[in-house]
Amino acid sequence: MATLVLGTVGRIFGGPLGGIVGTVLGGVVDRGLFGGGGKAREVGRMGNLAVQSSSYGEPIPFIAGRMRGAGNLIWSSGIKETATRSGGGKRSGTATTSYGYSASFAVGLAAREIAGISRIWADGKVIRDADGVFSSPVTMRLHTGSETQPVDALIAAAEGAGGAPAYRGLAYVVFEDLPLADYGNRIPNLTFEIIADQDEHLDVGQVMAALGTVDRRSLVVLEGRFPTMAGHFSGRSGSIADAIAPLLEISGAAFAGGAGLTVKGGGGEPDVLTEDVCEARAPGDSRNRERRKRAGMESLAGAVEVAFYDVSRDYQPGLQRVRRDTANGVDHQSVACAMSPMQAKSLAAGILARRHAGRLRATVRLPWRFVALQPGALVRFADDDIVWRVRETRFEGFVVHLDLERIEGAQPLAASGDGGRALRFDDDPVGPTLLHLLDLPPLQGEVSDMPRMWIAASGASPTWRRAGVELSGDGGESYATIGVAEGNTAQGVAISVLGPGSVDGWDRFASLDVEMSGEAMWLEGRTPVSVLSGANLALVGDEIIQFAQADALGAQRFRLSQLLRGRRGTEASATAHTVGERFILLDVSTMLPFDPPTEALGRAFRVRAVGPGDTGSVPVIGAATGRALMPLAPAHLRLRHVDGAVWANWTRRSRVGFGWADFVDAPLGEAFEAYRVEIRLDGRLARTETVSVPGFVYGAATRIADGGGEVVTIAVAQLSAAVGPGAWSSRALVL
Q: Which of 39, 220, 221, 382 sits most deeply, having the most CB atoms within 10 A of its CB?
């Protein structure tokens, strides 16, 4: 301020030379009083150095084969701030201090020794390829989880001697000073392709045996054949039986009786029961042959679907379904297994075939010498080829009773599956972030008591996911991080002019063509009831509209029609549209809120994005006008000429009561009720009044004293204690 004042005074009394001297002296005063001028600038400094949290007590995942998992943060030294100073010399001007952030941390991967890791994703983006090459310099160490692994050197240096565990038996990785600028200055969500076994032909039986391993010895004994897969992830609390049960279901295996955990899969030779064997005598018994019965089709599901992790789509969730001609619902099987779509389809076909084969049940009585037959055993009668599995055994009166279930005889349906298109987030350039700083009226569900602003962010590139957001309130001298924008708000520009239209109901004549900024930004129509409930709210220029119809025109273009205009009190902007103005879909779930203090009203703020594609990005500037606190323009303003006086009446509207019920006054929504009234005579401002009721009388004598005129224009705005007058309503009366 002193720079401006003394510079002006110097020019008045001393000409150009005096102006220079005054400017220099004013700069000295400003620097002394306010620290301005040569004060060092701080760029990109965070206000909170908290580390991403980890979950205490989270189960340590067990992984078999090759699988993708996220792990758990088990150690961190905190976020490290590094200051870099530039400039400050005689020729380079004001010194600038830039801040960068990094973190050192460890992530637990698996509760067993693993063979290694392959690819790594950060926030869904590949940062390390299958060859072990990082896309940018990263220092990472892998501890495979052996029982002899040493303490990591970085953790030991940070925690001190004796304070750092070696995490033996736990596979984990350590990142050292990982740069965080590409992840919004936070530790990213990391996932790893973990290789627990080198065998590429892992089967379900091997997984069950690995799950049942205690002290390097498996308690599970396998018999028969099992389907193959790529990997398995077990990350929930529970017993070994809970983890094995889904695997038994998809493989058609069963626990066999006897000591230990014997699991019988497919194949294997059944015991042959001859006609002689199927005779059992007990007191009063006659000769006994097996008795068969078949369950009805109504007891079976018409389809089986298997949910799995698709190896052809970077381990993203997949679903394969097999259906028969009859449809009695769907049997859903969900397994934490990685496999191909063909393997999952085959599993679903096998499950459905076993369901239908299992409709046939049988009971048989055998001599006592067959008491060793236990549930899970396979048997076959000599006179047919059907293979049965023993479901239950009973020994009564020296007779063995067997309940049998058919397991073969029905052919699985043909199984061919396709995983569909992969949604991959690779290491392609993400491109710059598109930012808008919006000062909006209250949106649906909001009752603001502070001058709220919104930050809408997205990226034109399909690989854009998120970006950190920094804000400056001192003209760009310093910035502070206020959050991470990751909603990908749909935005674009108008490529036609939205003409004037009714703001009192549906505008079925006007339409608007828009071009979206990215291919993934899609607009779709909604029913009128849904629109009236708040759907498809959009900002066009400074007017907020809603649309029920959205027709795709191709090339990221849409035509919007069946409009509601001037929403949320923006009817004054319904006639001021141009080609190229902004179009933003207003969805509070995708936008980042920012609440400046009330004393910051009128101040200009700068926001900029901090992301992989935002190096050197230009800040977006916007002023905090307190739009969220402004009262709405009064409605139904009426002027009447009575005995030379002009009578004005209006109806209050409320920013906290947009849902205006019939025959009910809108809530006040302000600390007090007051209105500013401006009277113009033939266009000349003649008088300003403040009233506390929704009405005003402009007397004839007062009009004559104000200079008279043939056209009286009265404008009315409701007053707010925080921001003063809100939006205006005006009407003219020709006397």
A: 220
